[in-house]
Design a protein that fits this description.
alpha/beta; 38 strands; 36% helix
Length: 1071
């Protein structure tokens, strides 16, 4: 049926910040939904707390609210906007849970708002484990033996029936949060308690183990006329027991017979009919017993999911866009398939003639204490996707896309340290690098049968890897000049990169490239078109392979290539994708054809309609040069995708690639310590004392000269990797012996640590004429010593003087001119004893760009891209001075709950996965909203526990007085309690953990503590107070580990109850 005319205004719920289990695939689906509904003439209201996404740019919706996603806040927005309908299926579990709350509390009924996209009944039937199991029985589909428990006693009774191992799955959570596999009673009780705690309905499903079974997913779309299409089948490389988000997955499924596929296809459609999903996309997961072929249904998601993003990018079929249109009344046969230019309707089932591989990206290096075994709770922080004409090509392209310095099935460094039992443990118990251990097993002459028995990975996949290892062995026996052209071509068809071939033949990738080009062995580019080339396509969505016919058809238009940021990871997240999308849009507005290169399936940059042409390829020198050769661009932008494209800049310049923006020499001058020191000296700008050490002796000598405390880190790192604050020579020796390998090629950087300094971030843009636009000056809420990516920060600044701001701006302009910056620049300053020091300068996009843009109502990334392309700041009519009528606070979210045993203390190494923004009329309101958006419950009364390091004691007096005024009672450990009592502040003493029971952790577990302020310094003090922070996290007690954040929190308590909501379009007068 045609679209509904009784609906005029639709409220879309976003997914909130990027967290493990719910990443930027919902940024992508939300953006598609906004576009689709606006295209159809609907007025779109958007609620999302995620500041880093394109989705919350004011032009994406008619009314944009960057506000916490909970029923209290959303009710206020509904009251103002009066939408006719709410669409909750584009924002993951966060949006779904919020919509169910709105329905349960009668808010939707009160304001006469209809839920579209999925009915409450369908959501309940799919998400409620018991109801779903009963529904499957009714349509004669098997599910694993399972029972529901609502408390630990019920769980213990059920465990006796099922036995061990047993799988625990909490209801209504994302990414398998709180779940796991228990092999003994201790693990069972721990995981069950955790699962009951994180489930919003206090409900867990206890399920018989299907470990070792094969796992599949079907991505299905159904409309109100009962048209059903399968978008694609997806097969997990890992057997059951690994969360599908953490498994390598392959599309289409490789090991199903046609009969098995048809049975699974029919079952998927039956499930959608039974659950009642009739206006959008769903994902159904199956397990198959490899011994007898028995099919079991695991679960289904009645919404756009992580796999929907993968299926969309794998096939080119825009699931979220189609689902949004189905939600407003259309049927599949009424909608055109855009990728074929309307030659086929959306009801035409996609067909693919290539293989897609997704590999997850992990960040265990950030959490060395975490258990890195993969289970039913998701732990990956991002993913890559690759496309090839066969599985081997697709797999090797994906491995080289991961940004892990691997170029295929490389040998792992730690292999030498493993004995046979530990090696086989890596094969049996999945970890982040299991596929590399599989390859190593074949190098050690294990047979396919042996590896299958240990790992349970399907023999078809093992055969493919075995074959690649045999090719490697063959290659390593040859010299590059002896390889015949047809042999080299066969290696390329199997996905071997130039650099991999070079390593195996002991030469350089440049030599391999020359030989390839001499023999005309070049990639061709095929189109992703949903129809296996049955119909011509107008959409330039391309991937490389080594065949005869090239479908790229490059134009002679003036064109710009934007190199994307690769997989999401801690230190390089969605903010860089945001910048890349704006670079593409800016170039289009100036009349350029734009070309995007990226390998991340979750993002907006890899939507086929974001740029004029999309190359879904690894971001490697070989891959980029191949595309440059065929496209011949007028310019290439590398400064927007973070470290991933930036590290290619020197090599690209050597090959004559026209890199636009800040020159490679200037980028190097900002990153090279000695060069940068000379520049600052020349323009008279202060910098903390610093040095570079190339061995242990030199490090100890330089540290003595500089004076402790110092901050140390390896050179050229992103996200503060292995960065530490060191207080004495003993700690420095330990750091050098254990944390890093110091050498001439890998020196250690040593800086004077400015204790108690205020940290400031500045984002600026400089045009080709030398004019500088200061876009934002941000004040960090945490003091120096906490990585800038992990610190909350505020615009405008709230405690520094006008003269300090003026000097910061002046110094920023001086550095931009001296470095001859063209485009974006980020500077970090520290203010200590009224002196302003420069910490570092990055002449590239920074992770604060989206936050600054949404605080001033101007797209900073777009302005800078236009400057790089020759448009001046003057021509863009930017304001000389920015006035702020509101306060904006950026806060971050951490994955600590996913990693039991990890200390949630903040430091110089970045650990956050995403961010939110709070907007308020004053700092207190903005900060309160930023905390609520990260699911922190700010207490308004109760008992506050205070334990602070000696240098913080003078600052705690004001905080303690404010808490008493707010009717909190105070408890503290001995030293802090004595100090507070001496200053006439009423406070009771509580035992430290090592001082005997009842101690502070007992009080947390007894729910006697409502707020914790705990600052520490020495390694021993951090160790001693670890349990306080960990249990605060487990028991959801509001806590802070810095004095600055404690001050902000106390200010926010006043505002946390009566919050207003603000529309971006009103703030910036855009409506």
């Amino acid at each position: 049926m045609p679209k509904r005319n009784d609906i005029k205004k639709i409220l879309i719920l976003g997914a909130g910040p990027i967290v493990i289990g719910q990443a930027c695939e919902f940024d992508y689906s939300g953006v598609q939904a906004c576009k689709a509904l606006k295209e159809e003439g609907f007025s779109v209201v958007l609620v999302n707390s995620n500041v880093a996404t394109i989705m919350t740019d004011p032009e994406m919706a008619d009314a944009t609210y960057i506000e916490p996603i909970n029923h209290n806040i959303v009710e206020k927005i509904i009251e103002i906007e009066k939408p006719d309908a709410i669409l909750p299926t584009m924002g993951g579990q966060t949006a779904l849970n919020c919509a169910l709350d709105l329905d349960r509390l009668g808010i939707l009924e009160k304001y006469n708002v209809e839920m579209i996209g999925a009915s409450k009944k369908a959501i309940d039937l799919a998400e409620d484990r018991a109801q779903f199991k009963d529904a499957m029985k009714e349509i004669n589909l098997d599910s694993a033996e399972s029972f529901i428990a609502h408390n630990i006693n019920e769980a213990l009774d059920i465990q006796k029936k099922i036995g061990f191992p047993i799988i625990i799955r909490p209801s209504f959570t994302l990414g398998g949060s709180g779940g796991g596999i228990a092999y003994n009673m201790e693990e069972f009780i721990e995981i069950s308690n955790r699962g009951l705690d994180v489930s919003p309905t206090t409900e867990i499903l206890l399920e018989e183990s299907l470990l070792g079974w094969k796992e599949y997913e079907m991505e299905v779309v159904r409309d109100s006329k009962d048209n059903c299409i399968i978008i694609c089948s997806i097969e997990n490389f890992d057997p059951m027991g690994v969360h599908t988000g953490d498994s390598i997955t392959v599309a289409p499924a490789q090991t199903l017979t046609d009969k098995e596929y048809q049975i699974m296809r029919n079952a998927s459609i039956d499930i959608l009919r039974k659950i009642g999903v009739d206006t959008g996309g769903s994902n159904v997961q199956f397990a198959v017993n490899p011994k007898n072929g028995k099919l079991v249904v695991i679960e289904m998601n009645p919404r756009v999911s992580r796999s929907s993003a993968l299926a969309s990018k794998a096939t080119g079929f825009p699931i979220a866009k189609i689902a949004a249109k189905l939600a407003v009344g259309y049927s599949l046969d009424e909608l055109k398939n855009e990728i074929t230019g309307g030659a086929t309707p959306a009801s035409f089932e996609p067909t693919i003639d290539y293989v897609v591989t997704k590999i997850p990206r992990f960040a265990f290096e950030k959490f060395p204490d975490a258990n890195n075994r993969l289970t039913t709770q998701m732990k990956s922080v991002g993913e890559v996707m690759s496309i090839g004409r066969n599985f081997q090509e697709s797999l090797q392209k994906a491995l080289s896309s991961l940004e892990l310095d691997i170029n295929g099935l490389d040998i792992i460094d730690e292999l030498d340290e493993l004995d046979v039992s530990n090696f086989e443990y890596e094969l049996k118990e999945p970890g982040p690098s299991r596929i590399l251990f599989v390859a190593e097993a074949f190098r050690k002459d294990y047979s396919v049968e042996q590896v299958y028995k240990i790992s349970g990975i399907d023999k078809w996949f093992l055969d493919q890897i075995f074959s690649l290892v045999q090719v490697e062995k063959d290659l390593s026996q040859k010299k590059i000049n002896d390889i015949l052209p047809e042999e080299l071509l066969s290696y390329k068809k199997k996905g071997f990169t130039d650099i991999k071939i070079a390593h195996l033949t002991n030469t350089t990738q440049h030599k391999v490239r020359k030989i390839r080009e001499k023999n005309n062995i070049k990639p061709v580019y095929k189109r992703v078109d949903t129809c296996a080339a049955e119909f011509p396509t107008t959409t330039s969505y391309l991937y490389s392979t080594y065949e005869q016919f090239c479908e790229a058809l490059p134009t002679n238009n003036k064109k710009i290539i934007v190199i994307g940021s690769g997989p999401n990871r801690i230190g390089q997240g969605i903010e860089f994708d945001y910048c890349c999308v704006h670079a593409s849009k800016a170039a289009q507005e100036l009349g350029y054809e734009t070309i995007m290169i990226n390998c991340n399936p979750e993002t907006v940059s890899t939507d086929f309609d974001t740029s004029d042409r999309l190359y879904f390829e690894p971001i490697t020198l070989e891959s980029v040069l191949n595309i440059v050769d065929i496209e011949k661009p007028d310019g290439v932008i590398v400064q927007y995708g973070g470290q991933t494209p930036l590290k290619l800049v020197n090599d690209l310049a050597k090959f004559g690639v026209p890199v636009i923006g800040t020159s490679p020499q200037s980028i190097d001058a900002a990153e090279d310590r000695e060069k940068f020191k000379d520049i600052l000296k020349k323009i008279n700008i202060l910098q903390p004392a610093n040095s570079t050490a190339r061995n242990k002796k030199q490090a100890l000598e330089e540290a003595e000269k500089i004076g402790y405390p110092i901050i140390v880190r390896p050179s050229y790192v992103l996200g503060g990797r292995a960065m530490e604050v060191i207080y004495d020579s003993k700690e420095l020796k330990k750091y050098i012996n254990e944390a890093v390998k110091v050498s001439n090629d890998a020196p250690v950087l040593i800086d004077k640590f400015l204790n108690e300094a205020i940290e400031i971030d500045v984002d600026a843009v400089r045009d080709l004429k030398g004019e500088v636009f200061i876009a934002g000056v941000m004040q960090h809420i945490e003091e120096a010593g906490v990585h800038s990516g992990d610190s909350a920060c505020a615009i405008p600044t709230y405690s520094i003087s006008k003269s300090q701001i003026a000097l910061i701006k002046e110094n920023t302009i001086k550095m931009a001119n001296e470095l001859d910056v063209k485009g974006l620049m980020n500077v970090q300053f520290a203010i200590k004893d009224n002196k302003i020091f420069v910490i570092e300068v990055n002449p590239r996009a920074s992770r604060t760009i989206p936050f600054v843009s949404k605080s001033i109502g101007i797209s900073v990334a777009k302005i800078a891209a236009k400057c790089m392309l020759g448009m001046s700041i003057k021509d863009q009519a930017l304001p000389k001075n920015i006035k702020y009528d509101f306060c904006y606070v950026k806060e971050v979210v951490f994955p600590f709950l996913k990693f039991p045993g990890v200390d949630p203390i903040l430091g110089p190494e970045m650990k956050s996965t995403g961010e939110v923004m709070g907007i308020g009329k004053n700092f207190g309101e903005a900060f309160a909203k930023s905390q609520i958006a990260t699911n922190v419950t700010i207490p308004d009364k109760g008992t506050a526990f205070i334990s602070v390091k000696d240098e913080d004691k003078k600052y705690i007096i004001n905080v303690a007085k404010k808490l008493l005024k707010l009717d909190f009672s105070l408890v503290a450990t001995d030293g802090t309690q004595n100090f507070l009592n001496e200053n006439k502040i009423k406070c009771k003493r509580v035992n430290k953990v090592r001082e005997g029971r009842t101690h502070i952790v007992d009080m947390i577990k007894n729910n006697q503590i409502d707020l914790i302020i705990n600052t520490t310094q020495s390694k021993q003090a951090i160790k001693d107070s670890y349990l306080i922070r960990r249990e605060a996290l487990n028991y959801k007690v509001c806590y802070t580990t810095t004095i600055a954040a404690a001050n902000a929190l106390v200010e926010a308590i006043d505002y946390s109850e009566n919050l207003d909501v603000y529309k971006l379009q009103n703030i910036f007068k855009l409506a």
